[in-house]
Specification:
By secondary structure, this protein is an all-alpha fold. The chain has 2 domains: 3-75, no CATH class; 77-149, no CATH class. Helix content is 64%, strand content 0%. The chain has 6 helices and no strands. α3 runs antiparallel to α4 and α5 packs antiparallel against α6. It is elongated and about 65 Å long. The two termini are 19 Å apart.
């Protein structure tokens, strides 16, 4: 996304979040679609609903499964920011192709190249502070280059 469109997109995203993250809308999503509430107050109410006695054994079992799913969300990690990920996949595709198809790079060269290209694209599009980020010197092959973001 061009930098000139970023403010409009950011504003639209905030409006969408504001619309979706109020208690009433969160509870409607929970009641009708069993979508996990993002608001703490709605989340706590959903957990309390699942803890209530159920009318039969099947519902009681399903409520316990759903309660377990909701409780796992307390131990999750934040997802990467979507605009930044758009730049990651371009760099991944380029360097994965060079590594796997052309075999003209080592795994370390591909990982470092992917990371450098990803960072430069974020900086060029205003999504990352232009302050230099040191490349990983001892990058292990099993480590994903974007794992520190």
């Amino acid at each position: 996304m061009p930098k000139s469109q970023w403010n409009a997109t950011f504003h639209a995203a905030l409006l969408f979040i504001e619309f979706m993250t109020n208690y009433t809308n969160e509870m409607n999503l929970w009641n009708y679609a069993r979508d996990i509430p993002a608001l703490k107050s709605a989340y706590n109410y959903a957990i309390s609903q699942l803890s209530q006695p159920a009318p039969n054994q099947t519902v009681a079992c399903l409520n316990q499964v759903m309660k377990g799913v909701l409780e796992q969300s307390l131990h999750g990690q934040k997802f990467p920011n979507i605009p930044q990920m758009a730049y990651y996949w371009t760099s991944f595709g380029r360097y994965a192709l060079w590594y796997f198809s052309f075999r003209n790079l080592s795994a370390v060269q591909a990982a470092q190249g992917m990371e450098s290209y990803f960072i430069s694209q974020l900086q060029a599009n205003g999504l990352l502070d232009p302050a230099p980020i040191a490349a990983l010197e001892n990058l292990m092959v099993a480590e994903l280059p974007a794992s520190r973001y």
